[in-house]
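Please, structure for the following, as tokens.
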Amino acid sequence: MFTRLRLTNFKVWRDTGDVALGPVTLLLGTNSSGKSSLIQSLLLLKQTVLAPDRSVHLSLSGDEATALFDFGSFETVLLQGAGAPRQFSIAFDFERAAATGVSRGSFECHYGQTAARSVAVHDLRLSTDDRQFRAVRREKGAYAIAVDGKTLPGVRGPHYAPERSIAFSAHAVSRLGHDGPVVEDLSLAIRRELEQIRYLGPLRRRPQRDYAWQKAAPGDIGSDGARTADVLMASALLKGSDQGQGVNGVSKWLQRMKVADRLEVRQLGRASRYELVVHRDGLMTNVSDVGIGVALVLPVLAVAYAAPQGSTLILEEPEIHLHPLAQSVLAELFVEVSRERGVQFIVETHSEHLFRRMQTLIARGEVAPDDARMYFVEHDGGSARMRALAVDEFGRVGNWPDGFFGDALGETREQARLMFERRKRGGE
């Protein structure tokens, strides 16, 4: 689980400050305020660690197999108007339930441009407990290695350059002696944390009428939910897996949202093709014929059960096309699944109903404020600004920005005022 994130000079962020992340984290704010940039920083690192070329410093566009987002160039990532040094940085802390190896650590990396205008690591810092390892770029692309603040003598050169932003080179590891395995374990833990990110964007595919099953479980649902049906078919049909857990879990939440009674995977005759069927009020409907809200929430529910335990699920606007009650139930989904399956949710949302239900869950004592972090992001001049919402044990927010969700109480008062004025005029 990621427990802290910090960005400097990254896209619209001059400095986020330390952003504490919980098992559930909600990012709220106006359009184009900077919420997506927070999410994209982790996606950028994930597609970098998945890059086939281990010598790459930062994979801005990824390749056909690993691309999650096209970041363009160094200039499009660097905050406009950033002063010297022209660098941006990404940092995070993490914790893992690891029986062996590293269970907690920190990553911080500063990126700049080379003379050839490519992106290069300028300062990489990997830490665990009270140990810190650094790779610092010097002149002409040479790197120096430091341990706990002390530069290793005679260790300098281009062959000590970091790999995929998170790992020290084999030359550096060999020169670290007994610390070599420590930094390798730390890099591996960071890689695993990034690999276990599952991202679902706001633009999701509509379901098809039927599907061919490949008799295998997909490794990822896809950023657009394209493999949702594959995940559900594997859950229902693949022997030796969590037989039915995914389909049963999805059915439970569809029922709690009051949009369906259950979901079923049905074989079409004797063919190797299957359809997803929604049951409601005694009727069966192919998923392609149900409302768009049900169709677009299926990937959200499926990834909650398909992601391996310990994963971080990054969701953008999971509430799209859902009615208010169903949006509210999403808050319960995040809290319950996070607790039951040990997965983390980082959610970018505009839903007042989701947010209000999270307040209620806190007030009920079903989740602690520190386990349901909430932030408001706003654009302040040339950069974004982060506001941690101060939520007490009763779910009350002490520093809520005016006007974001409108003013329900003010609207009621205005309606009452206008009603009395019209009645008064009618009685004159």
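The chain has ten helices and 19 strands. The first strand starts at residue 2 and ends at 10.
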